[in-house]
């Protein structure tokens, strides 16, 4: 089966970063990380979701957290230099990032936003993040992801 390269894959190729594109079956009624992890046959703690937030001082920021966790808003605010942060409205996702819900990748957004990855990623040789479309994940070394996105690796989830 030929997998068409996404913009995310092209960016990683250009940066000479190793990755694998892993397809999965999309369920339009279930865009949850649980469903993705089940489709991949992987531990949900290795399948990371990309969440976009807005800080009261710094504006947009990106948090990449394990599928079984939620962003700790207080920790994310502190780490990102904000007093408070909140999830953006769903209707803002596409205009801000270029991605839709269920296909939001920390790689290749319209702008380079400050990015924070949960420190548990360092326990694995590889993790999964969206390849930028529904139905496709990128299997990548967490250190490569953090380097490419210029991310801060810290405790941002609970």
What does this structure look like?
With 158 residues, this protein is an alpha/beta fold. The chain has one domain (7-154): Alpha-Beta Complex (YbaK protein), CATH 3.90.960.10. Helices cover 25% and strands 25% of the residues. It contains five helices and eight strands; from the N terminus they run H-E-H-E-E-H-E-H-E-E-E-H-E. It has helices at residues 7-14, 33-40, 73-80, 90-97, 142-148, and strands at 19-23, 48-55, 59-66, 85-87, 115-118, 127-130, 136-140, 152-154. The chain has a five-stranded mixed sheet with strand order 4-2-3-5-8. Strands 1-7-6 form a three-stranded antiparallel sheet. A hairpin with a 3-residue loop joins strand 2 (48-55) and strand 3. The protein is globular. The model has no long low-confidence stretch (mean pLDDT 95).
Mean pLDDT, rounded to whole units?
Answer: 95
Strand order of the largest sheet: 4-2-3-5-8
Strand content: 25-35%
N-to-C order of helices and strands: HEHEEHEHEEEHE
CATH H-level name... which superfamily? YbaK/aminoacyl-tRNA synthetase-associated domain
Distance between the termini: 38 Å
Quaternary structure: single chain
Q: Which range best describes the helical content: under 10%, 10-25%, 25-40%, 40-55%, 55-70% or over 70%? A: 10-25%
Q: What general outline do the C-alpha atoms trace?
A: globular
Number of strands: 8
Instruction: State the CATH topology.
Output: YbaK protein
Number of domains: 1
The low-pLDDT segments are none
Question: Based on helices, strands and strand pairing, what is the structural class?
Answer: alpha/beta
CATH architectural grouping: Alpha-Beta Complex
């Amino acid at each position: 089966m030929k997998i068409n390269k996404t913009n995310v894959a092209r960016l990683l190729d250009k940066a000479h970063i190793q990755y694998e594109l892993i397809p999965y079956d999309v369920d339009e009624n279930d865009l949850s990380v649980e469903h993705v992890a089940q489709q991949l046959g992987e531990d949900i703690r290795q399948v990371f979701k990309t969440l976009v937030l807005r800080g009261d001082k710094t504006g947009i920021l990106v948090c990449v957290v394990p599928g079984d966790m939620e962003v700790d808003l207080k920790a994310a605010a502190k780490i990102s230099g904000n007093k408070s942060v909140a999830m953006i409205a769903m209707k803002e996702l596409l205009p801000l990032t270029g991605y839709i819900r269920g296909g939001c990748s920390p790689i290749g957004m319209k702008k380079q936003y400050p990015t924070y990855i949960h420190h548990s990623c360092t326990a694995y040789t590889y993790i999964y993040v969206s390849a930028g479309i529904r139905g496709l994940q990128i299997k990548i070394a967490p250190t490569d992801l953090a380097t490419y996105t210029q991310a801060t690796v810290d405790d941002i989830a609970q």
